[in-house]
């Protein structure tokens, strides 16, 4: 299996004007095994999103290193899919083209076109593949955003409160969906959540932050 994450002595500071630096992460050491589904839990401001952004390669650590399968994380990669609380779909592209975007950017769309349809179907949006983001509900848009990350077959899926903006019923369905995808694909998943039910289901590491 692939997708093991190692975090070694990671420190992240945010400099402030006329004030001491904010120390968002102070010496985090953690290993997440390939195929695990882990929740990051903890009080607001404890550094959950910061850690996710470092694993995504969107920000660099001030000290320490992060690895995926022993390869150091230095920049964003399609191997680490990221889903935010608010689905960031391109409003001018329909659902098919949103999901296909990464494959087109990497010039592998022609070979992988059937994958786009497969993942749109997996998240239950087959009949909406020609719809535009403004024609979808929040839950549907979030599922499209999940398909867009999954179509790249990431080693790791990073989920930053992906269910936070959804109503309770849609959230329950999406939770089931995520667990089903995880069981089916065995992708390493790291999810920032405040949801107690997900917290019970997944491994808990929030106390480390
Ligand atoms: N870009 C930034 N510039 C300055 N400070 C930042 C930045 N991003 C995060 N911080 C600070 O780093 C700390 C950790 O923030 P982070 O967003 O990681 O917390 P969190 O645990 O995800 O919080 P929440 O549960 O409220 O989303 C906070 O004190 C925050 O103000």
TrEMBL record:
Coiled coil (UniProt feature): none
The protein's enzyme class: hydrolase
Classification via CDD domains: ABC_NrtD_SsuB_transporters
Domain of life: Bacteria
InterPro entries: AAA+_ATPase, ABC_SmlMolc_Importer, ABC_transporter-like_ATP-bd, ABC_transporter-like_CS, P-loop_NTPase
ABC transporter domain: residues covered: 5-209
A GO molecular-function annotation: ATP binding
E.C. code: 3.6.3.-
Swiss-Prot/TrEMBL keywords: ATP-binding, Hydrolase, Nucleotide-binding, Transport
This protein's name: Aliphatic sulfonates import ATP-binding protein SsuB
Source species: Sporomusa silvacetica DSM 10669
Recorded name of the encoding gene: ssuB_1
